[in-house]
Specification:
The chain is an alpha/beta fold. The protein contains eleven helices and ten strands. The structure holds NADP nicotinamide-adenine-dinucleotide phosphate (NAP).
Length: 315
């Protein structure tokens, strides 16, 4: 029987009075057919929180899989938590509502649980998601500030189709001023985080201000070497009878964060959902890991992609 206090069913209260399932499924999956099967498998494994983005180019496929899950019965829309993100080329305030509505239409939904500004970097406005000059340099848009974009995001909440708004790929340098000036405070901040990049300062700020910290790449994006092969994680996994992935995901939830993981097979979806609480001593051991490694530079440039290394894929 489902027990609400089990780690895999944990929900975190948002500053809008609703809650977000801590275990989230990320849809950064390049292949369209695989997006549908992986989203369906995640739903069947028990995931109810889905993270999308216009940039991923597969909102339609995610939407189809979610609609099929809803239509098959047993799952109601309000049991799902669906997020998508505003891309860099849509930061101009007049582009925000149309971009939001286009995402909603592609997903086939009537409202979104969360809409994030994907990165704090505005690119040249337009339909080209990756505008470059003749030398291949990204064309940024100096004509719009992050606060301008945030004000347009606040309007979406006022109009009722978007329940919460937040930021992604920010450091405290961007987060603090938006937090101070916001009429509607960010509900969620999504950043890369795992034991090799704990982002403790951002987490502390979020906890102090009632913002949910949402970790992407909690398995270190599957990079090897990486957190999945850290000797501390391997030793704990052997001791508690769980897999290294389950140890990493449990640690993230137990430190009070939500997370996004991307299993692409049904077996891995079941594995990644089947987490249980680690003893305090194991959490302490993980918190003492000294290795530091950032796997995604998007936070520095707004240009997406994992740093190619070992098995890590570009994205
Ligand atoms: N805001 C942003 O800029 C941003 C950037 C990146 C990602 N994200 C979001 O975060 C989500 C998660 O990111 P991520 O893909 O890095 O997540 P992740 O879960 O840390 O890494 C996924 C990788 O781990 C492997 N994996 C999954 N389950 C495993 C298991 N049980 N054991 C061993 N390896 C396993 C997968 O391998 P296989 O593919 O072989 O199954 C895949 O290579 C994305 O889908 C996206 O929604 C956001």
């Amino acid at each position: 029987m489902r027990e609400e206090n089990e780690l895999r069913f944990r929900k975190i209260l948002l500053n809008n009075g609703r809650d977000i399932p801590a275990l989230g499924f990320g849809t950064l999956i390049p292949d369209a057919a695989e997006t549908i099967t992986a989203t369906r498998d995640a739903l069947e494994a028990g995931f109810r929180h889905f993270d999308c983005a216009e940039r991923y180019g597969n909102e339609r496929e995610v939407g189809r899989a979610l609609q099929a899950g809803l239509a098959a019965g047993g799952i109601a829309r309000d049991e799902l938590f669906v997020t998508t993100k505003l891309w860099n080329s849509n930061h101009r305030p007049e582009r925000v509502e149309p971009a939001f509505q286009a995402s909603l239409d592609r997903l086939g939904l009537k409202y979104l649980d969360l809409y994030l500004i994907h990165t704090p970097y505005a690119f040249q406005p337009g339909d080209d998601q990756d505008p470059r000059d003749q030398n291949g340099n990204v064309l940024y848009d100096p004509g719009v500030t992050l606060l301008d974009t945030w004000r347009a995001m606040e309007n979406l909440v006022d109009h009722g189709k978007c329940r919460a708004i937040g930021l992604s790929d920010v450091s405290l340098n961007e987060l603090k001023p938006i937090y101070e000036s916001a009429r509607i405070k960010p509900a969620v901040v999504q950043v890369e985080s795992h034991p090799h990049l704990p982002e403790t300062e951002v987490l502390e700020f979020c906890k102090e201000k009632g913002i949910v910290f949402l970790a992407f790449a909690p398995l270190g994006h599957g990079a090897r070497p990486g957190p999945l092969e850290d000797p501390v994680i391997l030793a704990i996994a052997a001791r508690v009878g769980k897999t290294p992935a389950q140890v990493l995901l449990a640690w993230a939830v137990q430190r009070g964060t939500a997370l996004l993981t991307t299993p692409r097979s049904a077996n891995r979806a079941r594995e990644n959902f089947d987490i249980s609480a680690l003893p305090e001593s194991a959490l302490d051991e993980i918190n003492r890991i000294q290795t530091r490694q950032r796997l995604n530079e998007v936070v520095k440039t707004g240009i997406p992609g994992f740093i190619p290394q070992g098995k890590a894929r570009g994205a």
